[in-house]
Amino acid sequence: xxxxxxxxxxxxxxxxxxxxxxxxxxxxxxxxxxxxxxxxxxxxxxxxxxxxxxxxxxxxxxxxxxxxxxxxxxxxxxxxxxxxxxxxxxxxxxxxxxxxxxxxxxxxxxxxxxxxxxxxxxxxxxxxxxxxxxxxxxxxxxxxxxxxxxxxxxxxxxxxxxxxxxxxxxxxxxxxxxxxxxxx
Length: 184
Known about the structure:
By secondary structure, this protein is of the alpha/beta class.
């Protein structure tokens, strides 16, 4: 079983994917980790790499896409949190997480304060986090539309859509696991 977890910035993709991996005994992978690794290799901040990715003709995106496709060719029992994995692994169970921008900003700002997102752009307060969330979403939508002609936030791309704004990670995981067990 392969599950893809996509969603907007701050929706809880990584947190939820890790918990589902544990619950369903799946290997966990993350395109975000791929991107952070690429940023680290290039000695850049993640936000700088994301801005470069918006301008580089898709080369950075293609690097993460290649890793996603190769993963699906090698394994068939994993979960990946990635905005575009639903596209590159069409046979997967595709989950999309949404969140209100203000809630996403609170989560991201909290992570920055706890140094769990040390590679995010300079976020010093909640207003910076809100701007970062909105800017990143707009950049990502534009980039994926330009390079792949994909609207990754379009609901028809997914088997299940979950609004995470007012739910605990555990409640989100329970909802997704029940869906998976009832439909696959």
